[in-house]
């Protein structure tokens, strides 16, 4: 049970956590902070938060659980503003898609209170954003990765784990560097590739026909290209080394694909496609299948 | 109304058309031909077809509508086998994802009967295959592209148009070369990119973690990598020139993306992602959104 929850950034992720904890009676008071008044007003109206504060310090004051749900590039600024007001019993966590840069920011901003910071990343979300997109079931049966380090207070990790389990998530733990490398592959590269494809197609002369003739495959493939550009700019910058390494490797794979097409090598294509199909079919979960 | 429908290739596409016409009482008898007895038996059991023939000639004999629903690479062989048995009142159409190579095959195989061939491509389907995947509503509100040429008999085009409209599809017409260029962009390139990504990831040391940490975005992005490898090998080979041109252009776009990441150019990333988001949001239709 959380007495006072501070949500810094009341968008899809932060708002859905607030909703989920409220629906399960796991929280007393919920305070929100955000950059835009309109979104905060909407969050209050939709009963996502109880009230809004106009400063981060006021929002975290007295909170026993502080959740940072802002784009990764805004974490340092938010942590600096929050640091002086974080209470001695408070635990701080985040939902950022990249962990090492957020950990570095937290270490620099929080000083001795860094032990109370539990880096986290729920593998959930949609291409939508804002408090209006918040849903109480967003985290049900989803995975939350925590990346506590040797300095992290195990009690803090325990409280963050309990919070996520309370909203139906499965909590796993791994080193931050592993998280960042794995997520570069499973999430950051696919987002970058989808953005690059849609951006290329919209600049073609045929773009009207191309979009008109788009089938379900194209819709699925490019859905993530409707994600928030600022959030994804931040993720790509924060995780650019693992992302660049994978992008290079992918470019090499496309070079091989192009060569196979050039020489009309049907066997290479069939084998590659079949290997991918087998791997993809091993992946089952929410939102999958017809 | 079709008296005798011959479905050559009773998979997702052919089977769904059979089901849809039957459900709407738009067809008398439905005969199926296919390579595997097990699939044909299943098609009969599921009432997708009335009976199966063990030769293409027997299947098309007496049919007034012949639908070729085999992988693009098998079209020539199928057309050659069908040609001598095609009746004088029969119309022939196909559901191939590439049009020019199928048209060339039909011209060579059908000789004087080429005027009765109406090249078609329904923009529908899932990553599933086989008669068991057939659904009577697959074509509802979907687009079917016909690419008749100057030699095509307008009556034949009219009969194929009426068939697709009867199952709820919207029929549009365009030159075959336009179709192939547009579909290379909206469908063939995305499939090739998804196959290449999944194939790359499954060969990484981290592949278990990567697949375990896959969220909804990854599932959407890679769903098409579970499509039939033979069908997609054929499509890639049949349409390799437009596909290669787009693949090259995409590689150039990835080179620019890599450079922007190298120099940590947040503005370039944000602008590119925002342009893609706007374009993607303009795209709405079946299977989209939460």
UniProtKB/TrEMBL annotation, chains A, B:
<dbReference type="InterPro" id="IPR008927">
    <property type="entry name" value="6-PGluconate_DH-like_C_sf"/>
</dbReference>
<dbReference type="GO" id="GO:0006571">
    <property type="term" value="P:tyrosine biosynthetic process"/>
</dbReference>
<comment type="pathway">
    <text>Amino-acid biosynthesis; L-tyrosine biosynthesis; (4-hydroxyphenyl)pyruvate from prephenate (NAD(+) route): step 1/1.</text>
</comment>
<keyword id="KW-0560">Oxidoreductase</keyword>
<keyword id="KW-0028">Amino-acid biosynthesis</keyword>
<dbReference type="InterPro" id="IPR050812">
    <property type="entry name" value="Preph/Arog_dehydrog"/>
</dbReference>
<dbReference type="Pfam" id="PF20463">
    <property type="entry name" value="PDH_C"/>
</dbReference>
<dbReference type="InterPro" id="IPR046825">
    <property type="entry name" value="PDH_C"/>
</dbReference>
<feature type="domain" description="Prephenate/arogenate dehydrogenase">
    <location>
        <begin position="3"/>
        <end position="290"/>
    </location>
</feature>
<keyword id="KW-0057">Aromatic amino acid biosynthesis</keyword>
<comment type="similarity">
    <text>Belongs to the prephenate/arogenate dehydrogenase family.</text>
</comment>
<dbReference type="InterPro" id="IPR046826">
    <property type="entry name" value="PDH_N"/>
</dbReference>
<keyword id="KW-0827">Tyrosine biosynthesis</keyword>
<protein>
    <recommendedName>
        <fullName>prephenate dehydrogenase</fullName>
        <ecNumber>1.3.1.12</ecNumber>
    </recommendedName>
</protein>
<dbReference type="GO" id="GO:0070403">
    <property type="term" value="F:NAD+ binding"/>
</dbReference>
<dbReference type="GO" id="GO:0008977">
    <property type="term" value="F:prephenate dehydrogenase (NAD+) activity"/>
</dbReference>
<keyword id="KW-0520">NAD</keyword>
<dbReference type="InterPro" id="IPR036291">
    <property type="entry name" value="NAD(P)-bd_dom_sf"/>
</dbReference>
<dbReference type="Pfam" id="PF02153">
    <property type="entry name" value="PDH_N"/>
</dbReference>
<dbReference type="InterPro" id="IPR003099">
    <property type="entry name" value="Prephen_DH"/>
</dbReference>
<dbReference type="GO" id="GO:0004665">
    <property type="term" value="F:prephenate dehydrogenase (NADP+) activity"/>
</dbReference>
């Amino acid at each position: 049970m959380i007495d006072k929850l501070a949500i810094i950034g009341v968008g899809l992720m932060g708002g859905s956590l607030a909703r989920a904890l409220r629906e399960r009676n796991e929280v007393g008071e919920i305070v929100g902070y955000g950059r835009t008044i309109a979104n905060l007003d909407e969050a209050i109206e939709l009963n996502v938060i109880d009230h809004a504060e106009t400063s981060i310090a006021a929002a975290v004051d007295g909170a026993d659980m502080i959740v940072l749900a802002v784009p990764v590039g805004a974490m340092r600024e938010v942590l600096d503003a929050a640091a002086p007001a974080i209470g001695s019993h408070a635990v701080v966590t985040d939902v950022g898609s990249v962990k090492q840069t957020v950990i570095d920011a937290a270490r620099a901003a929080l000083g001795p209170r860094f032990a109370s910071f539990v880096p986290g990343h729920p593998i959930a979300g949609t291409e939508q954003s804002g408090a209006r997109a918040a849903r109480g079931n967003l985290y049900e049966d989803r995975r939350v990765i925590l990346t506590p380090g040797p300095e992290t207070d195990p009690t803090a990790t325990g409280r963050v784990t309990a919070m996520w389990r309370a909203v139906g998530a499965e909590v796993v733990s791994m080193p931050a560097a592993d998280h960042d490398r794995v997520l570069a592959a499973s999430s950051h590269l696919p987002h970058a590739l989808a953005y690059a494809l849609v951006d290329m197609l919209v600049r073609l002369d045929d773009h009207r026909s191309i979009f008109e003739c788009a089938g379900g495959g194209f819709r699925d493939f490019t859905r993530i290209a409707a994600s928030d550009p600022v959030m994804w700019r931040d993720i790509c910058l924060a995780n650019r080394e693992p992302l660049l390494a994978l992008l290079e490797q992918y470019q090499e794979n496309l070079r091989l694909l192009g060569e196979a097409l050039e020489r009309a090598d049907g066997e290479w294509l069939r084998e590659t496609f079949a290997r991918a199909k087998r791997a993809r079919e091993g992946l089952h979960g929410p939102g999958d299948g017809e």
